[in-house]
Design a protein that fits this description.
CATH superfamily of the largest domain in chain A: HUPs
Order of helices and strands of chain A: EHEHEHEHEHEHEEE
Number of strands of chain A: 9
Largest sheet of chain A: 5 strands, parallel
Oligomer: heterodimer
Shape of chain A: globular
CATH class of chain B: Alpha Beta
Radius of gyration of chain A: 17 Å
CATH class of the largest domain in chain A: Alpha Beta
Radius of gyration of chain B: 15 Å
Structural class of chain B: alpha/beta
Largest interface: A-B, 24 and 23 residues
Strand content of chain A: 25-35%
CATH architecture of chain B: 3-Layer(aba) Sandwich
Largest sheet of chain B: 7 strands, mixed
Number of helices of chain B: 6
CATH topology of the largest domain in chain A: Rossmann fold
Strand content of chain B: 25-35%
Number of domains of chain A: 2
Strand order of the largest sheet of chain A: 3-2-1-4-5
Chain lengths: 226, 183
C-alpha cells in the first residue's frame, strides 16, 4: 500500500514514518507549514527544516502552507492530502498521534471523507517505553522547544538520551506531564535515525529561554554522509 | 491467558499497532497473560488453551473481516467469556443473527449505560472514543447494556458471558478491559 506521512520533523512523525516503512511503501511526506505559532494541529519550530529530513530519508516532501486558524487549517490539510494522492497515488495517511483525540479524530474524519486509510502506529503507546525504543533504535532526537513548568533551560537544545528519559519519567510521576510532550510540554526535531541515509549536522543554532519557555532554532544545517 | 483476535486487514499490519497492541499493553499492565492471533489463524487448539477472548477493532476503511464472516462461526457455542470491540461487536452480532448496519461515528461521544453489570457498573453517563462506520442491530438472545436500540453502544448475551462494545475502551476507558480480566 502506498502511504503518505504527515510529517512535522518531530520524533512522533519520524517514528510513525519508520513504522510505516517497515510494513508499507511510504512514497511522500506532507508538512503543514503553519503561520500560527499556537496552531491546534501542527507544531511550528524548525518546521522548514523538514525538507532536509526528507532529503536525508530519501522520500519526496510536499510542503503545504496554512494560516493555522482553528478548523480552517483542516481544510488546508485536506487539500494537501488530495494533492499527495493525485501526485503520488497514496491510498492512506500515517500520523504520529499518541494520545490526542482532538488531532486523531480530525484526521480520521478527513481520511474517511476521502475514502482513504488512516494509520496511527503510535496510538496509545506506552510513552516511556516508546522513548527508550527511540533511543535504542538510534534516533537522535533534539529538544527544540519547552513550553511548560518544570522544564528548565538545560532541556533546550538537549539530545534525548537515557538520562533525559529517566528525568522525564520522574517528571511524569511528580508533575503529571505527558512524557512524550504531546500535551505541548516540549517539541523535538530528529537529526538522525535508522531510516536516515544521511544525518543532519547543525552548523549554527540560537537558543532562548525565559519563564519555562524556550526555543532552539536551527539557523544553519547540512547533511553529512553516515 | 486472554487471546486477542486481530481483525485488521492482514496479519501483522500497520493497524495492529493501533487496534491490538494498546489492548495487549493495558491487559499486561493489569497482570494478565496475552496471546495475539489474526482472525484467519484461529484454530481449535488456541481456542481450547485460552481462558477468555477479546475480538479487537480495526481501521475505519477495513472491511476484509466483514467479507470473511464465516471465519467467526466458532463464536456460536464458545463457552468462555468473549468481549467484542467495535468490529468485534459487529462480528458477534452477525454470528448471533443480528445485522451490521451503516452507522458512522468518529471521536468522543457520551454513552448512557442503562443496565447494571459487573463490566460497566451502575447506570450512568460516560464518554467513549468512537471510530466506526458500522453499528449493529441487537440479536435476539442479547440485552442492551448501553445506548439505544437503534444505536447500541454495548450488549451482552442473556445467559453467556459474551459482550460487545462499539466504542474503543482502550482509549479513555481502560477500566473496562481491566474488569473483563476478572470476569
Amino acid at each position: 500500500m502506498k502511504l503518505g506521512v504527515l510529517f512535522s520533523g518531530g520524533k512522533d512523525s519520524v517514528f510513525a514514518c519508520y513504522r510505516a516503512m517497515e510494513k508499507n511503501q511510504v512514497v511522500c511526506l506532507i508538512t503543514m507549514i503553519s503561520e500560527n505559532p499556537d496552531s491546534y494541529m501542527f507544531h511550528t519550530p524548525n518546521i522548514r527544516q523538514t525538507n532536509l529530513q526528507a532529503e536525508a530519508i530519501g522520500i519526496p516532501l510536499i510542503p503545504w502552507s496554512t494560516l493555522g486558524e482553528k478548523e480552517k487549517e483542516l481544510v488546508d490539510l485536506r487539500n494537501a492530502i488530495i494533492v499527495a494522492r493525485n501526485r503520488f497515488g497514496i491510498q492512506g495517511i500515517v500520523t504520529g498521534a499518541v494520545e490526542s483525540i482532538y488531532q486523531a479524530a480530525r484526521i480520521q474524519k478527513i481520511c474517511c471523507d476521502l475514502d482513504m486509510w488512516c494509520f496511527n502506529p503510535l496510538w496509545q503507546i506506552n510513552q516511556i517505553e516508546y522513548l527508550y525504543t527511540l533511543y535504542s533504535l538510534g534516533f537522535k532526537v533534539l529538544i527544540t522547544g519547552v513550553f511548560a513548568y518544570p522544564f528548565d533551560a538545560s532541556w533546550v537544545g538537549a539530545i534525548l538520551v537515557e538520562e533525559k528519559i529517566k528525568k522525564l519519567e520522574k517528571l511524569q510521576q511528580e508533575y503529571k506531564i505527558n512524557p512524550s510532550g504531546e500535551g505541548g510540554e516540549f517539541e523535538t526535531f530528529v537529526l538522525d535515525g535508522p531510516i536516515f541515509r544521511k544525518r543532519i549536522e547543525i552548523i549554527k543554532a540560537s537558543k532562548s529561554y525565559e519563564n519555562f519557555r524556550g526555543h532552539f532554532i536551527l539557523n544553519e544545517t547540512h547533511l553529512v554522509d553516515k | 491467558m486472554i487471546l486477542l483476535v486481530d481483525l485488521c486487514f492482514e496479519k501483522n499490519s500497520l493497524s495492529k499497532y493501533e487496534f491490538v497492541l494498546p489492548i495487549e499493553d493495558t491487559l499486561k499492565h493489569a497482570g494478565a497473560m496475552c496471546d495475539i492471533l489474526h482472525y484467519t489463524e484461529i484454530c481449535n487448539d488456541k481456542l481450547e488453551r485460552c481462558d477468555k477472548i477479546i475480538l479487537c477493532g480495526t481501521a475505519l476503511k477495513n472491511n476484509a473481516f466483514a467479507m470473511n464472516l464465516k471465519s467467526f462461526s466458532w463464536i456460536n457455542g464458545f463457552a468462555k467469556p468473549i468481549l467484542g470491540i467495535c468490529a468485534g461487536m459487529q462480528v458477534i452480532a452477525y454470528v448471533y443473527g443480528g445485522s451490521i448496519i451503516t452507522s458512522k461515528s468518529i471521536g468522543l461521544e457520551t454513552i448512557e449505560i442503562i443496565r447494571e453489570t459487573y463490566l460497566f457498573g451502575v447506570p450512568r453517563k460516560i464518554e467513549g472514543y468512537h471510530l466506526h462506520s458500522c453499528g449493529v442491530t441487537l440479536p435476539r438472545e442479547f440485552e442492551l447494556l448501553a445506548g439505544t436500540k437503534n444505536k447500541a453502544e454495548a450488549f451482552k448475551h442473556h445467559s453467556q458471558p459474551i459482550y460487545g462494545i462499539i466504542f474503543h475502551p482502550e482509549v479513555r476507558n481502560k477500566w473496562i478491559l481491566e474488569r473483563f480480566i476478572k470476569i
